[in-house]
Amino acid sequence: MSSLSSPDAALRASGSRTDLYYVLSAGLLWGTGGLAGSLLGQVAALSPLAVATYRLAGGGLTVLAVLAVTGRLPRLRRAGWLRVLSVGVLTATYQVCYFAAVAMTSLAVATVIAIGAAPVLVLTAEAVGERRRPGSASLVAIGLALLGLALLLGTSGHPLTRAGGGSLALGVLLALGAAAGFGALALIGRRPVPGLDGPATIGVGFTAGGVLLAVAALVVGALTGGHGFGGHGFGGLEFAPTAASVGLLVYLGWVPTALAYGLFFVGLRGVSASSAAVVAVLEPVTATVLGVLVLGQRLGLGGMVGAGLLCAAAVVAGVGGSTSRPVTEAGLS
Predict the structure, then answer these.
(1) Taking every pair of C-alpha atoms in the chain, what is the biggest distance, in angstroms?
(2) Do residues 175 and 101 make contact, with C-beta atoms less than 8 angstroms apart?
(3) For residues 149 and 285, what is the distance between their CA atoms, to the nearest angstrom?
(4) Neighbour count for residue 75 (Cβ, 10 Å)
(5) Which of 4, 33, 40, 150 has the fewest CB atoms within 10 Å around its CB?
């Protein structure tokens, strides 16, 4: 028995490490999405709702095209349709809340709040759902992440006090809504559905989410004359194609959406949902580095320490998640 169990354990450990690398890669690629989406909104004069619509639709349709060419289009049953529709609703909610929060606060503030709150919400949901106390590794990882995010936010050059009253409050609430949507996505992604893999989930789910957001954008645009509620321009899908706008749109749909979320869903096979949410803190690290390199923003000692703590949180969460029980053993199948 020992001669068999040892190779099996080594194989599971190797698979868990590979899944962790997938989730890490997703976090790094997501860090480029906020910048690309923000630039797309500026270059093409698109509302946050329109940016989220084009991102999901572009990513979902790209994956569906690849599946069609390779003859791998899924034949979904009831459970599969329920899953992809849930993914569509959650991703649509997460994306529109996130980009709206960016518009009302800043890229740094919205990202820090959304990513910082997500692992706390997921850990709480896992502890309640599985009726167990959170592990020490999870608590340490979340503590490091929150401290790192606080330091990063303090050096972002956009303190919360600089935003305007009502917009700040609504922006924070929208960022928390994005955190809840992402956390729920991580939780349901741990529950396998027969006949439904990661690419099929992304292709059908994101396309459905894009359709939902397109309908919402058209309705909001019609109700507000394209100016959006509160003057923030949340409606309308008008898009003037230029080399810059098309390039940003293609990148946003392909890299931080189709590719990153595909890696994330595949990696969830061997990484716990709470660990995956903590590993996602690499997104603000990447966004901050890009802000320094691309936008010329400054990152002081506090920011560097904060980024280091976020990376440490990702390592602690990854180690804890890679040794977690398989999904079937945890009663989540």
Answers:
(1) 71
(2) yes
(3) 9
(4) 8
(5) 4
Length of the chain: 333
pLDDT at 319 exceeding the cut of 80 = no
Beta strands in the chain (DSSP E): none
For CA atoms 3, 269, 318, 131, the dihedral sign is negative
Cα distance between residue 147 and residue 279, in whole Å: 15
Tokens of 91: 């991703």
The structure tokens listed for 24 are: 């890490």
Token pair, residue 185, equals: 């996505």
| Radius of gyration, CA atoms only, the chain | 20
Q: What is the average pLDDT value for the chain, to the nearest integer? A: 75
Span 274-289, average pLDDT:
70
Model-level pTM? Answer: 0.72
> Is the CB of residue 171 less than 8 Å from the CB of residue 101?
yes
Query: Who contacts 62 (Cβ-Cβ below 8 Å, separation ≥6)?
Result: 253, 254, 258
Q: Assess whether pLDDT exceeds 90 at residue 65.
A: yes
Q: Rounded to 5 degrees, what are φ and ψ at 193?
A: -120, 125
Alpha-carbon span 321 to 329, nearest angstrom: 14
Distance in angstroms (rounded) separating the CA atoms of residues 118 and 30? 15
Q: By C-alpha distance, which of 122, 120, 98 is closest to 111? A: 98
Count Cβ neighbours within 10 Å for each residue of 286-313 and write b for 16 or more, e otherwise: bbbbbbeeeeebebeeebeebbebbebb
> Beta partners for 193?
196
Q: What is the pLDDT of residue 269?
A: 75
- Cα 94 to Cα 182: distance, rounded to the nearest angstrom: 6
